[in-house]
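Researcher: Batch entry, complex prediction.
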Amino acid sequence: MNIPRRKDFRAPRISWRFLHVWRRNFLVWRKLAVPAMLGNLADPMLYMLGLGFGLGSLLPQVNGTSYITFLAAGTVAYSTMNSATFEALYSAFSRMQIQRTWDAILNAPLNLDDIVLAEAVWAGSKSFLSGTAILIIIWVLGLSHSLLTLWIIPISLLVGLTFAAMALVMNAISPNYDFFLYYFTLVVTPMTLLCGVFFPVEQLPAALRVVAGVLPLFHAIALVRPLVSGVVPASPALHVAVLIAYGAFGFYVALVLTRRRLLV
Amino acid sequence: MSAILDIRDLRKSFGETEVVRGISLQLERGQCYGLLGPNGAGKTTTLRLCLGLTDPDGGTIRLAGLPVPQAAREARMRLGVVPQIDNLDPDFTVTENLLVYGRYFGLRDATIRDRIPGLLEFAGLSHKSDARIPTLSGGMKRRLSLARALVNDPDIVFLDEPTTGLDPQARHLIWERLKQLVAQGKTILLTTHFMDEAERLCDRLSIMDQGRIVASGTPRELIAAHIEPDVIEVFGDGASDWGETVGRALSQRFERTGETVFCYSTNVQPLLASLDQRRELRVLHRAANLEDVFLKLTGRDLRD
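Model: Structure tokens for the complex:
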């Protein structure tokens, strides 16, 4: 990896033209919308049904709810994280490096900053879709009847933007697709296991609880799980602020490193 | 009239290596300007500098009257680019490629849709409007890249090695289209290392080598200024022996690559007389061309 130059650190320069790039990605997605949506629905549903009923039948209530309801909240956060992460790693990388779509766009009156923003917002949009899909499953399975669950829709977008920005940092420094496995092994998988997707964080030893508490997925779940139970989350501003902080910092670092990579 | 592209003393280094070393050139409107040079001469870097995709270490660029890189985004509104490597959108049809690209310029869908039939006709792709990109031949992709570069009705078009990798039919078709564009009043800046391409298309050209412009002018001027008018190429067994013993002495300039010798002269009669005695040698007598100038100025060594 090359060391960023001074000019790579300048403030973001973005314009509304980023929407044209978002729209381009949307147009590609629309061509395969039906299988994509089915994937959004089927994957978490299998998790929730398999683990929720299979494992859940062995368990007493978890934190006062059925295990499947507990798991459903974790799945919202986990799936929104994954949607944005996959989009901002593999799909963005193929547009940047393999198809050279970004090069074509850079010859038009758009800046690299516009493109990186568009990729982040697009990946966030994918999370919005998966979050909404799981919410529908939650309603259909009757796991929650609270109107508070509607908050899951904007939260999915926020969580998506956060993880998209973080993944775009990896995209900026990756030599190839294989490189992304490090990110899954070192970041995504530990976060999934530590942050309370499958079991309450309180079950972890104190030291690991501290680690979990600083990870973004923990704060996503801290927002979603009470909502599924029909309760207003405790200190929502803190959790939102942590997600925004990860997202904003990730976006800036991604921008600096992508400029270093492409504007040589 | 002011130049549509005005480059003064442009410099760019990558690390320790200075790849563009003080380039100046001016393009007048309606001109086809060629930038020639071997691989690594700095042609593509010069284009990237003009697009504002990389910042110069020195010098100034004005494109369509705007300073680059400061106002590069605005300048690119007036510009079309055909890149060296096709980067069409493989997920889209031919028409969708033009539509989506037009949107990047802030054009309304209705405006773009009005332009698409004309662009497809120009590119000879009317029958392929709904085809997906992977089904197109290499020549069709290049033509679509050209059509895409015109979607914003630019004043100036950059083409980076537009015909590399194309078969002769496809190459001639691209040439025809580029001539049409110039006839319509567009300005063209193209890089190439095909001398016949430059000789046919370019009103003016510059030969670049190792980051510098080593010669500029019309193709005729360059040939007249830099090279003797006649060339005799001799090849086959014994050609280099004949060259070293006879050819070198009878030529004004003499070059040898492997078993082929090149004799440049203003008076080739003595050479031809000598070769008359050596019927076993194969001889090609021709007028000097741009390639001879190019090889004289940039050398015959490989540039890898």
